[in-house]
Amino acid sequence: MKKGIYIRFATLLWVALVVTGCNAQQSDSKYYLLLMGESENWNLTDYEIVITPQDFNAGYGNLIMKNEEEYITDYFHFDTHVVINGEDMVVHSGSSTGGMDISEETTGAIEGGTYLNKNDEPITLNDVSDIYMIVEWWDNSTEKSVNERLDLYKKSNTEETFFN
Q: What string of DSSP letters covers 67-93?
């Protein structure tokens, strides 16, 4: 009889340790997003965002202008925005000026930094509701600055997601 109690107690203790270990592992979440987006004139491919408790990294994407083999302009700029707990912030940007072909642009990358949620803890993907990029360039034909938004990530309104 005592042996059965010890076995039950040992099993309960083992289950408690496993469950506690899983909960501790959840707080050390790491997210890797491979994003793409499209607007009227642009395609973005292979844009990466990595979120860990220690770092927020973004970049290595390719912006390709649709239906253009070559597009010479004097100005090109992009901003990557992330909306964290309702606050819209620019997390990555790049600019070029002076007579260049922008038909294919790489975004480069930023590494490091930590963003905190409303509880002053490192963010997780659950804190992020939107990720988008604004691309701006000088249009020589209209002689105006043009900008377009490329939506990259939108948090589902439903509770079911692979990231919960």
A: T-S--EEEEEEEEEEEEETTEEEEEEE
Domains and CATH numbers, the chain: 30-154 (2.60.40)
What pTM does this model have?
0.79
3-class DSSP state of 126: helix
pLDDT 10s digits, 51-95: 999 999 999 999 999 999 999 999 999 999 999 999 999 999 999
Q: How many CB atoms lie within 10 A of CB 37?
A: 21
Q: Tokens in use for 54?
A: 């220690």
Long-range contacts of 112-118 (CB under 8 A, 24+ apart): 112/55, 112/56, 112/57, 113/55, 113/56, 114/53, 114/54, 114/55, 114/56, 115/56, 115/82, 115/84, 115/89, 115/91, 117/84, 117/85, 118/85
Helices (H) and strands (E) in the chain, counts: 1, 10
